[in-house]
């Protein structure tokens, strides 16, 4: 019997999602699972949960910017604070859903999963402003996609609607932030829930 | 040369502070340090940071209540959801500052540290409603304090002012939630920053 994939909701502008994207596939694989990624807009989940970005709050902002970088270092990852943060990530997210729909889903190893992983790396290691169409087109080409086709996708009502559906489904299932994970129905919010996820995968429910 | 204590800000109504209180003294001791506790009111830091309790937000509320209990189990601790939550914790906090001022500070081993640790345990393992004067008096007696003296303390403008000062100092130093720690100036927010704190204590800044 094959085990269900681990669901992983992320936003291309979420630093903790960048960090989580670096370890989730290996963690899943070591427990015989794949990862199924879901691109969402934190703006949508924040609105539903009446939250804002951690950098929108006094006091918490300064700590969060410090903790993003420190947490990346803790996980042995490069980190460059993006010059614009947070960025509107809907165009990159629409391309994700297009890839998922046309190239075999969004599980580990798929084109959508690679786009997600590399997109997060581009934002947080090279400061790529993926909200700028020219930058996103160049990044798409770098990733082996047809840049003009990608641009057509993110302007297409079909893929706008697909992303909206993903946001709605996330909210309906209780997702209010990112990274957010579900293992056999059990929710885990945050890069720092990795130890609990590891125990859950190893020993089952606790 | 003796190492500086680890500063630990908590609220008697904070479940993650209850969990952190179970491991912070041993972690500190294993690195030649003590812990210096600071009772604060999250209401004050939340106001300064424009935040609310995690259980005040839609979606996040349900997850948080689930995560409080799961995180306690993860750390091998008993956990009983308090019947009233969050509770106003100012009276217990004023007694803490009175003990700190009159019985030798709030470092590991002090009466104030014990009051803090046992108070959190009482709230989250026995559901004691420490905001009710009769309950708090009984708890004070159980802890070997003069219950009437404790009640006089929490009604005394001197100790009200001392708690307000603690809240103001916490906010001024960047504290916006609990548990919040500082190790040689480095801030760590949340029970889940334990792995980073452990590395910091072992290897120094990273």
What does this structure look like?
Two copies of one chain form a homodimer. With 206 residues, chain A is α+β, with helices and mostly antiparallel strands. The first copy, chain A, is built from nine helices and four strands; from the N terminus they run βαβαααααααββα. Chain A has a four-stranded mixed sheet with strand order 2-1-3-4, with helices on both faces. The mean pLDDT of chain A is 97. At the A-B interface, α2, α3 and α9 of A face α2, α3 and α9 of B.
Question: What layout of secondary structure does this protein have?
Answer:
The structure is a homodimer of 206-residue chains.
Chain A: E1 6-10, H1 15-29, E2 35-39, H2 42-49, H3 60-74, H4 90-102, H5 111-126, H6 133-142, H7 147-154, H8 157-172, E3 180-183, E4 186-189, H9 194-203
Parallel strand pairs in A: 1-2
Antiparallel strand pairs in A: 1-3, 3-4
Helix pairs in contact in A: 1-5, 2-8, 4-5, 4-7, 4-8, 6-7
Task: Write a concise synopsis of the structure shown.
2 copies of one chain form a homodimer. Chain A has 206 residues and is of the alpha+beta class. Chain A has helices at residues 15-29, 42-49, 60-74, 90-102, 111-126, 133-142, 147-154, 157-172, 194-203, and strands spanning 6-10, 35-39, 180-183, 186-189.
Which chains share the greatest interface? A-B, 31 and 31 residues
Backbone shape of chain A:
globular
Supply the number of helical segments of chain A. 9
CATH T-level topology of chain A = Glutaredoxin
Helix-strand string of chain A: EHEHHHHHHHEEH
């Amino acid at each position: 019997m094959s085990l269900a994939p681990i669901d992983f909701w992320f936003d291309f502008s979420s630093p903790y999602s960048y960090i989580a994207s670096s370890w989730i596939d290996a963690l899943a694989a070591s427990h015989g699972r794949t990862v199924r990624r879901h691109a969402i807009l934190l703006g949508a989940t924040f609105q539903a949960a009446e939250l804002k970005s951690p950098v929108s709050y006094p006091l918490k902002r300064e700590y969060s910017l410090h903790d993003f970088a420190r947490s990346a270092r803790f996980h042995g990852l490069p980190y460059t604070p993006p010059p614009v943060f947070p960025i509107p990530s809907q165009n990159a997210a629409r391309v994700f859903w297009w890839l998922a729909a046309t190239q075999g889903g969004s599980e580990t190893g798929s084109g959508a999963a690679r786009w997600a992983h590399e997109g997060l790396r581009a934002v947080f290691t090279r400061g790529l402003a993926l909200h700028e169409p020219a930058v996103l087109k160049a990044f798409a080409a770098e990733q082996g996609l047809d840049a003009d086709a990608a641009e057509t996708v993110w302007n297409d009502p079909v893929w706008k609607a697909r992303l909206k559906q993903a946001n709605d489904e996330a909210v309906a299932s209780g997702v209010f932030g990112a990274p957010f994970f579900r293992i056999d129905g059990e929710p885990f919010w945050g890069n720092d829930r990795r130890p609990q996820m590891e125990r859950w995968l190893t020993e089952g429910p606790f």
